[in-house]
Design goal:
Blueprint (H helix, E strand, L loop, with lengths): L19 H11 L11 H10 L5 H14 L3 H5 L3 H8 L6 H17 L7 H4 L7 H12 L8 H10 L9 H11 L8 H14 L18 H4 L17 E10 L5 E5 L10 E2 L11 H13 L3 E13 L4 E11 L12 E4 L1 H4 L6 H9 L3
Parallel strand pairs: 1-5
Antiparallel strand pairs: 2-3, 2-6, 4-5
Helix pairs in contact: 1-11, 2-3, 2-8, 8-11, 9-11
Length: 367
């Protein structure tokens, strides 16, 4: 495969030299106590893997427990509404995960009689389940001898074998899967996969790895050549743009607040929000406010009072959300581009799923 090389021209070691037993022994002694490691229930393993995508373990634990308390089985999840699921998921981010998990649960109930399939090929056919998640659930919950390569595992393997140019794309992951397959200990692939993940999470860190504590250290080519942080190769990070938007907290005479539902696709799909939108080039916030609210709701506003700015980071941009308190000038009839809306009392807003920035906007408005 192009772009793969050993450090200093030294060829990568043969798979048979990988210290499998040493890694497993280290894992038994040092693994963190996490709720999803106390079970082989495929639904719980699957849920944990979905929640852990691009999210820290410390953040996931309370969400995992709360989610299972509300939806203890795949059948209970399949019977829920999207709004119920999004509310429990609120502030965990990457909401597409929750929507796809719900779709997949419905398929499991309708197609597989509520029994999660054990074969990685069938799991990978469910919405939101990629090769990694399918491998993790198959190996951990069902004891299948299949690899599961996430970012932590990729980093460990690239360093151990001194592999340059292995990207987190299908080609790179396919190569690493082929490298890992003959290393997997028969019948213990689940523990082995988790051991590699754990090693990458707590020892083989992206920066300043704790090589002295690593059970693979004596054979790791990246460490032998004193260059662990050069593997795997990193793509140059693009500058993250800042985008400005507005949110209008519009009250009616009954002290209800207007909320609109986001579209079913795109950023924060299907969550509720305050009316408003992104600024166009050259617009001041008050100009964006009047234009975007009119476009979205058909309502003209007045008496706008600036409440503050909410700052939030998304994957591809940084948001500056300028929040205004407003009242209606004229008719309260909603007839703009929004498809779904409601006038909600402050107490009702707490029970609706909102994105983090809109929840902070509600706090600014003392809702």
């Amino acid at each position: 495969m192009p772009g793969i090389s050993g450090s200093g021209g030294v060829p990568a070691p043969e798979p048979g030299s990988f210290p499998v037993e040493g890694l497993l022994a280290w894992y038994r002694l040092h693994r963190r106590s996490l709720p999803w490691r106390e079970t082989r229930d495929p639904y719980r393993v699957w849920l944990s893997e979905v929640m852990l995508q691009q999210t820290r373990v410390s953040t996931v634990v309370p969400y995992y427990e709360r989610f299972l308390n509300r939806f203890p089985t795949v059948s209970a999840l399949a019977a829920a509404s999207e709004e119920e699921v999004l509310k429990v998921w609120e502030n965990l981010g990457y909401y597409a995960r929750a929507r796809q998990l719900l779709k997949a649960a419905k398929i499991v109930v309708d197609t597989y009689a509520g029994i999660i399939p054990d074969r990685p090929e069938e799991l990978a056919g469910l919405p939101g389940v990629g090769a990694y998640t399918a491998g993790a659930v198959s190996s951990i919950a069902f004891g299948q001898d299949v690899p599961a390569i996430d970012g932590n595992v990729r980093r460990v393997l690239c360093r151990y074998f001194a592999l340059a140019g292995i990207m987190a794309d299908k080609e790179g992951l396919r190569y690493l899967s082929g490298l890992l397959a003959p290393i997997l200990p028969p019948g213990r692939a689940g523990d082995f996969n988790q051991a590699l993940m754990e090693l990458g999470a707590v020892i083989c860190l992206p920066r300043e790895p704790l090589c002295a504590d690593c059970p693979l250290g004596e054979n790791c080519l990246a460490r032998i050549h004193d260059a662990p942080e050069t593997f795997p190769s990193r793509r140059e990070k693009k500058k993250v743009p800042v985008r400005h938007a507005v949110a209008a907290v519009i009250r009616d005479p009954l002290d209800r607040v207007l909320l609109v539902k986001r579209q079913h696709r795109g950023l924060l799909a299907s969550l509720w929000k305050f009316p408003g939108g992104f600024a166009e080039p050259g617009e001041e916030p008050v100009q964006t406010l009047a234009r975007s609210v009119r476009d979205e709701t058909g309502i003209d506003i007045r008496d706008d009072v600036f409440l503050g700015t909410v700052r939030h980071a998304y994957t591809h941009f940084r948001l500056r959300l300028h929040v205004f308190s407003c009242s209606v000038s004229g008719s309260r009839q909603v007839n703009g581009s929004c498809k779904d809306y409601r006038w909600a009392f402050p107490g009702e807003i707490r029970d609706l799923p909102l994105g983090r920035a809109d929840r902070q906007a509600a706090d600014l408005a003392r809702l």
